[in-house]
Design goal:
This protein is mainly β. The chain has three helices and 13 strands; from the N terminus they run H-H-E-E-E-E-E-E-E-E-E-E-E-E-E-H. It has a single domain, classed as Lipoprotein localisation LolA/LolB/LppX (outer membrane lipoprotein receptor (LolB), chain A, Clam). A 13-stranded mixed beta sheet has the order 1-8-9-10-11-12-2-3-4-5-6-7-13. It is globular.
């Protein structure tokens, strides 16, 4: 039991801490003018200004992934290295279940509303105070966050005709601005079957979704045992430090 719980704790700590490392704060670098540009013939006629950019950027407080409250899919890739294997994911309202293709039952359930998770196995259950990494990027949705939407054309992905959208995410509590590119499948009501990190100078992750089924999953998939060990409780059950031997009298 202790070894299994320790493994879950290590996996859990990687979750949000690793996700934060995947989006380091980067200050934009200013480009300096070269000497060649300064020596351009001043008598040369000035070029006409570039055409104004189409006002197609829209801002909203609605996270696009919040539209999909009930679905199941196979997910591949993620914001951290080592997430290239296929994983089964399910969503029912605010609850998400993530599991691998393991012989022993083992899965994680994240509550997107509370941003807390449970790790469940045949050997026990552990509560964690943060979302599990497999629920990314669905857990990005937060109150007060604003989203900029920019249509970026169309593309065929895995046989699906997709509308491509660049999504820029601004959070008042996080100075890091996120930039995703969503490939929204027309035949899946706009479900993003591919999501890319488009933020410069950051880890270039890509997430793919396949075998997407829209609709409520089996409610039994989201059952949590009545008794779950907390991480605080686990720390208390660890071995106590040995007392120092008494000093020898001379």
């Amino acid at each position: 039991m202790g070894r299994w719980v320790a493994t879950l704790i290590v996996a859990g700590y990687v979750t949000l801490q690793g996700s934060a490392e995947a989006f380091p704060s980067q200050a934009p670098q200013e480009e300096s003018a070269s000497g060649e540009q300064e020596s351009v013939d001043k008598n040369r006629p000035s070029e006409p200004p570039p055409p104004a950019q189409s006002a197609s950027v829209t801002t909203s407080s609605q996270y696009p992934l919040d539209r999909f409250q009930n679905f199941s899919a196979i997910q591949n890739g993620g914001p951290l290295p080592g997430m290239e294997e296929d994983r089964y994911i399910y969503r029912s309202g605010n609850l998400m279940r993530m599991q691998g293709d393991a012989a022993v039952p083992e899965y994680y359930i994240t509550d997107l509303a509370t941003q807390k998770s449970h790790a469940v196995s045949g050997n026990g259950c552990l509560q964690m105070g943060y979302p599990y990494k497999g629920s990314f990027p669905f857990f990005v949705s937060r109150p007060g966050v604003t989203y900029e939407h920019l249509p970026s054309g169309e593309e065929i992905v895995d046989g699906h005709k997709c509308h491509v959208e660049d999504l820029t995410i601004h959070s008042p509590k996080n100075p890091v601005v996120l930039h995703f590119r969503l490939y929204e499948a027309d035949d899946l009501q706009g479900f993003p079957i591919k999501i890319e990190n488009r933020r410069e100078n950051a880890y270039r992750w890509v997430i793919h979704y396949k075998e997407v089924r829209l609709g409520p999953p089996d409610p039994s998939l989201f059952m949590i045992p009545d008794k779950c060990q907390t991480m605080a409780g686990f720390k208390k059950t660890g071995p106590s430090p040995k007392a120092a031997p008494p000093a020898k009298s001379h």
